[in-house]
């Protein structure tokens, strides 16, 4: 018997599903703080959420080194699924990764350990994809920056609690920096490096 | 002095590779699953999508889903100088691939030269069925075997046609010798 019998399937319709997911992520990046839905669904392995799985199928390929947090990396379902469907190489050194998948936000390593890009190529930074509990309820945050008309409000329960304080390093690093994508089931919110977040408490 | 030489020229010799001729019959005797799958692939790869579909249509197939929907891509073909020398890239070939999983858990893979995604999917389905305990025998009997028969007939015919065009060239020894 083959060993990968438990693998969940990929997109049913590869092209349209990937296009639609790409659109959702692009809209999320263009309008930081807005909650976008990912419609096309693929099977999600282990600790991976549906939205994360769809993003993985859309954005990852053999040219995008991938860093997984401990909980993802120790799940053989996740690593096998990623290898089979995306072919993306999983790296141990987070500073060369194009994407980082975080399922346990509490154990997020220091953001300086990811690739920050260079002044010549600021795009060569790690996009950190963090799975969170909720993007519709929880603490409220105030977001400002390009793509936001005035102020955007975000309600989310996020781990680590000090994520946005940590992201303040983007202010000094610009144009280098870390882009963050938050995923809760099928909801996606992007916090690009230009967005400034103020916590409004609970 | 010119040397006498002989050229035996087979017309259409390039139409089928050498390995195709011998790969079908001997492996069926091995009873391991790997060999069975290999033998099934050797037949299915040379069959048309329509032929496979027509034979599968008559079977009561188990539930299955596409693990990987058919997709097209390129593979680099590598050759070796003189057959065993330094490797070099010969060129790229278009390949379709698919993966199918049966409800019972068997996963089949299909790769096929060209852009016929449906054929790759059917091959993957057959590969999964061959591994299945319940359907392995049935598929072997009603899909693979008839297709193999057909393939052998086709090959024999081509071989006969080829043999009929065999020409022997001789060069006479010229001059005083």
Automatic annotation (TrEMBL), chain A:
Task: Kindly give the InterPro entries that the UniProt entry links to this protein.
Answer: PhnH-like_sp (IPR038058), Phosphonate_metab_PhnH (IPR008772)
Q: Which domain of life is it from?
A: Bacteria
Database matches in Pfam families: PhnH
Q: Name one GO biological process term.
A: organic phosphonate metabolic process
Identify this protein by name: Alpha-D-ribose 1-methylphosphonate 5-triphosphate synthase subunit PhnH
Q: Please give the organism.
A: Bradyrhizobium huanghuaihaiense
From TrEMBL, chain B:
Looking up InterPro entries in the UniProt record yields: Phosphonate_metab_PhnG
Q: Tell me the protein's name.
A: Alpha-D-ribose 1-methylphosphonate 5-triphosphate synthase subunit PhnG
Q: Which GO terms describe its biological process?
A: organic phosphonate metabolic process; organic phosphonate transport
Per the record, the domain of life is Bacteria
